[in-house]
């Protein structure tokens, strides 16, 4: 059954995860996906910002295919040089050459381990997070997510969290004054929350305050990292460094990968963190292909180039209330809910876009290698609809 907005209700034995649009992609290439009838769709959402280098990239296919023919998986109980290669490329390209890399499988798991590691290091349990935040659905990550509806009864008695407004310096100092805070966790740009972000000045303030009050700064770059905002990590616009950086979505271009970059002053001991699937051979092959492509095709520079064009075009549309975000992590805000607009863009113009907790916000997360010519139909479609 399909509703008026074009969202199809699940009628099979599958557990309902999300409402589904009545589109069935069967193949994809570059910034496009194709349904079973070979109808072509422009993908400006990339499966929640996962598709960093586009669908079916030749480098990606070659690297993963070759690895699959060699060895696809073994546990972290053996030597894996491919992990060392991944770590070297990631720390070099990101600029965090002194940090260590811990592999996991998802954004929630990255944040979960980041919070746990901060508590190990500081011996404290209280955490500061921010209103509008989304850090995942596992226990610790969910506890610092500003959405009580996602918490089951067993989540109610977790560690203490103080939620603050973004960019409120006095509230941050007040929350830190007892020196009982393990970590401050903040997204480079809020994703699900609606593209609000800490200012560059506030990130610098957080960094200084954490050092003064013996807390760790955890940057959640799960969606805003990997070049999406025009820097490798969004917080690098502010020229700050973090103690722990959590990553996932763009790392594997669709292959499940997560990770933490961990500052050298944080000591790890065997068994402190662990994973079965994290950093397996296939995951590393996918991740190396992504990093190679970002570097060789200058995708971070492309993000800035295409973003400048898109923002200029969107600002010319007077019905748009506000443009949020950075690079190719943009939110287009209106004075009304965008649910019907998203459906119209999908079914009338074959363009995938995203939503957020803000019902008036259209979320744009295309592959980082999209060109100006490829994104122009979105602008033209908006002009027709609005």
Give the CA-based shape: globular
Secondary-structure content class:
alpha/beta
How many beta strands in the DSSP annotation?
16
Kindly estimate the percentage of residues that lie in beta strands according to DSSP: 15-25%
Q: State the CATH superfamily name of the largest domain.
A: Type I PLP-dependent aspartate aminotransferase-like (Major domain)
Q: At the first level of CATH, what is the class of the largest domain?
A: Alpha Beta
The number of helical elements comes to 11
Strand order, biggest sheet? 6-12-11-10-9-7-8
Largest sheet: 7 strands, mixed
- Helices and strands, in order, run as EEEEEHHHEHEHEHEHEEEHHEEHEEH
Could you provide a short overview of the structure?
With 386 residues, the protein is an alpha/beta fold.
Give a topology summary.
Layout: E1 7-8, E2 20-21, E3 25-29, E4 32-35, E5 40-43, H1 46-49, H2 58-70, H3 81-94, E6 100-104, H4 107-122, E7 126-130, H5 139-143, E8 161-164, H6 169-176, E9 181-187, H7 200-212, E10 216-220, E11 244-247, E12 258-262, H8 281-296, H9 299-315, E13 322-326, E14 329-333, H10 339-349, E15 351-352, E16 361-364, H11 372-385
Parallel strand pairs: 5-15, 7-8, 7-9, 9-10, 10-11
Antiparallel strand pairs: 1-2, 3-4, 4-5, 6-12, 11-12, 13-14, 14-16
Helix pairs in contact: 2-8, 3-8, 6-7, 9-11, 10-11
């Amino acid at each position: 059954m399909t509703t008026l907005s074009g969202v199809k209700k699940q009628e099979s034995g599958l557990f309902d995860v999300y409402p589904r649009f009545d589109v069935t992609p069967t193949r994809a290439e570059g910034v496009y996906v194709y349904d079973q009838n070979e109808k072509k769709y422009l993908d400006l959402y990339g499966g929640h910002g996962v598709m960093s280098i586009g669908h079916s990239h030749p480098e990606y296919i070659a690297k993963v295919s070759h690895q699959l023919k060699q060895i696809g998986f073994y546990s972290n109980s053996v030597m894996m040089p491919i992990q060392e290669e991944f770590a070297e490329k990631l720390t070099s390209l990101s600029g965090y050459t002194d940090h260590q890399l811990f592999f996991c499988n998802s954004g929630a798991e990255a944040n979960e381990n980041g919070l746990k590691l901060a508590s190990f290091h500081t011996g404290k349990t209280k955490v500061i997070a921010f209103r509008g935040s989304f850090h995942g659905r596992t226990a610790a990550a969910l506890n610092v997510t500003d959405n009580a509806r996602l918490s089951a009864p067993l989540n109610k008695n977790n560690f203490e969290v103080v939620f603050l407004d973004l960019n409120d310096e006095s509230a941050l100092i007040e929350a830190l004054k007892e020196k009982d805070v393990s970590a401050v966790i903040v997204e480079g740009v809020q994703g699900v929350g609606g593209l609000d972000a800490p200012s560059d000045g506030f990130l610098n303030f957080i960094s200084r305050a954490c050092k003064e009050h013996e807390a760790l700064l955890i940057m959640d770059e799960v969606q805003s990292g990997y070049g999406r905002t025009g820097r490798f990590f969004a917080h690098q616009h502010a020229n700050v460094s973090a103690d722990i950086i959590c990553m996932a979505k763009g790392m594997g271009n669709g292959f499940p990968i997560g990770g933490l970059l961990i500052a050298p002053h944080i000591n790890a001991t065997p068994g402190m963190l662990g994973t079965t699937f994290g950093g397996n051979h296939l995951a590393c092959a996918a991740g190396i292909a992504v990093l190679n492509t970002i570097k060789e095709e200058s995708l971070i520079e492309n993000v800035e180039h295409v973003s400048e064009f898109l923002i200029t075009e969107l600002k010319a549309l007077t019905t748009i209330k506000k443009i949020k975000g950075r690079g190719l992590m943009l939110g287009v805000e209106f004075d009304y809910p965008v649910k019907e607009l998203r459906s119209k863009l999908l079914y009338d113009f074959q363009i995938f876009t995203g939503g957020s907790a803000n019902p008036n916000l259209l979320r744009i997360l295309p592959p980082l290698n999209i060109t100006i010519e490829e994104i122009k139909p979105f602008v033209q479609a908006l002009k027709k609809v609005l």
